[in-house]
Amino acid sequence: MIGHYLLFNRNCEQALEAYKEAFGGKIVEMKKFGDMPPNPEFPMAESDKNLVLHARLVIDNQELMCSDGMRVDTDVNGNNMYISITGDKAFIQKAWDILKQDGTVYMDLAPTFFAELHGSLQDQFGINWMFSAMK
Hints:
Elements (H helix, E strand, L loop, with lengths): L1 E7 L3 H12 L2 E7 L19 E8 L2 E7 L12 E7 L1 H11 L4 E7 L6 E6 L5 E6 L2
């Protein structure tokens, strides 16, 4: 499945509510950063725990995914969108291996608490990609 992934600057939940109202959509998933298991390599300020880690909004049978960005460059308009790819593990691994060549890895493709594999990168052409093999 191919989709869009939008990153917001600490206002993702407000944007979701506006899009839900504007398009008659339905929020089908919303996880907060505070829902993540604690990780000493990823310390989190108390003020960040209520930010959106991952959300899905369905509009007319189409899915829009989004979160509050945690990287500095996502604060720049135009750098706050990814093409999101969801599929089985073999499909995701193959696409990842090809697109990471001469690209910039933001988050290594690895198991997470919400996906069998998840990672993000910018390919050599400047396009941001997010990959997920769901559990």
